[in-house]
Amino acid sequence: MAVARTFAVALNGLDGHVVEVEADIAAGLPAFVLIGLPDTALGESRERVRAAAVNAGCPLTQRKLTINLSPAALRKQGSGFDLAIAVAALAAAGDVSVESVAGVVHLGELGLDGRLRPIPGVLPSVAAARRAGFANVMVPTANAEEAELVDGIRVTAVASLRDAAIWHGGRFSHEPSEAVGLSRSADHRADDDTSLDMGDVLGNDDVVEALTVAAAGGHHVSMIGPPGAGKTMLASRLPGILPDLTDDEALEVTSIRSLVGAPIGRELVRRPPFEAPHHTSSAVSIVGGGSGRIVPGAVVRATSGVLFLDEAPEFPARVLDVLRQPLESGTIAIHRANGVAAFPARFQLVLAANPCPCGRYGSPDDECTCTPIARRRYLARLSGPLLDRVDIRLTVRRLGVAAIRASRARDDQRATAGEGNHGSGTSAAIRRRVVEARAVAAERLAATPWTRNCQVTGNWLRTGPRRLPQTATRSLDRAFERGALTMRGFDRTLRLAWTLADLDTALTPTAHHVGAALFLRRGMEA
After folding, report:
1. Where are any strands of DSSP class E within 212-286?
2. Which residues have a Cβ under 8 Å from the Cβ of 333 and sit 6 or more positions away?
3. Regarding predicted confidence, which is higher, 242 or 422?
4. How many CB atoms lie within 10 A of CB 113?
């Protein structure tokens, strides 16, 4: 009999590789041989596929069946090859059209009853099939909406193996079957950040303005203050003032959600993600990993969004230090004995910490019981190399009654003036300022590979036409000469100055902008 072939997709991180699935039927005792570096889950597909085919009413051959997954040197993982293996075997036996299955990429896991079950990673898999030049892809019904997010490729949704065989020309009578739906328990977070508004924040205007600067330039932030000062409240509202994701960012963020098994709707995710892991999290849960399939961690899920580490000194030092490399490169490469998986990791880091173990240091009402050495040791858990990558450092104070009353009075004045919820302190209003500032930066950087100030290299800022005059950088130069700034800190302060200038719609940063950037960099008090 002729060899039949079809195609599936093997994922390595977000990168998909098209795999040719070949089926050969030979004389001999009944056997089902699967070759081509399958992992355990894929190796078990022999029993799943055989039982599913019988229960779907299209049994496999009783002769020797050999399935080859090519390229053989590429490791294949997961149960998403089940459908491709089954239709290739049916085509080799002559039950379906060999030509039909050869032109379609098949994705899906088979249940023992013959129905197709949804799999994670359909979006990046379909995108990989389109890049490889395929025009048709067949997926489980539950993954159809996700697959249709990729333009330029025809998506065929089937509920069972029998339906797939009929679509490929198999002479089987149609028997309706109930499609397997998605499990909503996989949704690890909501994407709607509209319920958290920066207008809810009373006082702390300087901190809100500093977060606006961070959002406009993509800068990292640390906040130190006693419990109840509003650090978590402020950090959780940062995504609300970030602009909507671009098309490329939305596709990337949605692909990551698909990879971790979170449900995908009819549209791409357009709002920046927000990840807030607990301080007991391990290094693997932060960066990703796993003994079998490599799963993205919090830094990957926070791509194009915010990674918030509350109670940052409580995180193990090893966990905090693994952030240093992705903060610089914007990617994370996870190495295992069986391969390497690379993921995007371009996120805004927000650190929050108490000033001391008891949390009362600097509070006018409470007396701190910590010794000076205990306070130094507590904050020293945030290593110097990590803090050197943080652009804006804030000290957040608890609000007194007078500050709260003054803030409420300003809100009442805005309401009287007719501003209502559209006042200058709301997330929507701040987001408009951020969008305008980013547009200014994007226009300036149009001839470069960057779009935001946080991406610009220090060499580009310090040389050529964008080099600031010495009169503007005098305070920054003095801080560098005294050793108060590293070379990295010097460059990051320049980026911050450009963001402040963009918010002011200035053509170039002045000495005022550089001084303000240095003030934010070295730690301001709200």
Report:
1. 221-224, 274-275
2. 340, 341, 342, 343
3. 242
4. 14
Per-residue 3-state assignment (H helix, E strand, C coil) for 276-339: CCCCCCCHHHHHEECCCCCEECHHHHCCCCEEEECCHHHCCHHHHHCCHHHHHHCEEEEEECCE
Q: In this structure, what are the phi and psi dihedrals at residue 453, rounded to the nearest 5 degrees?
A: -65, -30
Q: Residue 405's pLDDT band (boundaries 50, 70, 90)?
A: low
Dihedral sign for Cα atoms in the order 352, 191, 270, 197:
negative
User: 175 and 57 in contact (C-beta within 8 Å)?
Assistant: yes
Contact 334, 341 (CB under 8 A): yes
Give Cα separations from 472 to 441, 462, 515 (angstroms). 19, 13, 9
Angle between helices 470-481 and 511-522 (to 10 degrees): 30
Which of 62-71, 222-231, 290-299, 443-452 is predicted with the least confidence, judged by mean pLDDT? 290-299
Q: What is the pTM of this model?
A: 0.89
Q: What is the overall mean pLDDT for the chain? A: 90
- Any idea which residue has 């804006």 for tokens? 392
How confident is residue 373, by pLDDT bands cut at 50, 70 and 90?
Answer: very high
Share of the chain above pLDDT 90, in %: 76
How many angstroms separate the CA atoms of 194 and 426, rounded?
Answer: 11
The Cα 314–Cα 182 span in angstroms is 36
Query: Are the beta carbons of 160 and 56 closer than 8 angstroms?
Result: yes
Residue showing tokens 């108490």: 354
Question: Where does the pLDDT of residue 190 fall: very low under 50, low under 70, confident under 90, or very high at 90 and above?
Answer: very low
